[in-house]
Amino acid sequence: MKIVTSGVEYVTSGVPAGTLITVGTDFGDIQKPIEKIKPGDLLKTYDMDGYDGGHHELNTPTYTKIRKVGKN
């Protein structure tokens, strides 16, 4: 499966069906199976560049709208 956001492509080949992906909603974050991700969902990601692994409160999430979902 290939997930495309604004200019960023997340290739998820080899990820088994049923793998949970965190998306943002009006009611908070939820987890959906990867095969149920659709355009318009808000993908929750973390920028791991410069993250030291010891201060999780400094690693804030980013929400990116999914533009396209397709097969690899």
From TrEMBL:
Name of the protein in question: Hedgehog/Intein (Hint) domain-containing protein
Biological source species: marine metagenome
